[in-house]
User: What shape does this take?
Amino acid sequence: VQLEQSRAAVGKPGATVRLSCKVSGYKFTDHNIHWVQQAPGNGLVWMGHVDPKDGETKIAEKFRGRVTVAADTSSGTVYMELRSLTYEDTAVYYCTTFAFCTSVACYPNDGFDMWGQGTVVTVSS
Amino acid sequence: QTVVTQEPSLTVSPGGTVTLTCASTTGAVTSGHYPTWYQQKPGQAPRALIYSTTKKHSWTPARFSGSLLGGKSALTLSGVQPEDEADYYCVLYYGGVQPVVFGGGTKLTVL
Assistant: This one.
């Protein structure tokens, strides 16, 4: 089982970055994919998720309007687009299967808690 | 907005015992929040140790245990080893608009 994330990205303030997370070793539609942000020296922040089975997403309030998460079932890849970059978006971004979500709540995906290696995003002018 | 709080830092001697806690601004943490604990070492992705309050993964060392303590989730390390030096994060699960909230993390130093 592997979650392979895209390489490091650099973006200017106001620009957009698109990160990818390609999964292998399991059926793509079996597990939600979440994105978690970790700014330098800071903790983990849940950004949102997509259910590859039906494309349903939920985005954390902090990122709503700036983040889109989408799943491509043909390639087994999840994409996360972060728009209107600010210096505060400089961080490592992880994709993970750590939770599964229904329409009303999320729960730990204890039997399948996998993480990608992380993608470093640097916002610089 | 829900905030989950942890001790920013703790120090423990090798072989000692330490308890890390995880509190919620919404009130007492219960098993219904499915408290989950992660360990993160520098340059690595987080790795789950405890889920659903007390349950361990197959790779979780026996010296780690989870519980509820005084309205908080707790992670106890008994017989601390030097390799336990790391950042520890709890995560709580809620319904509604903020379904997943991480704590700010505890930096554990073994000295």
In short: Chain B touches chain A at residues 1, 34, 36, 38, 40, 45-48, 51-52, 55, 57, 87, 89, 91, 93-105 (CB under 8 Å). The two ends of chain B are 36 Å apart (CA to CA).
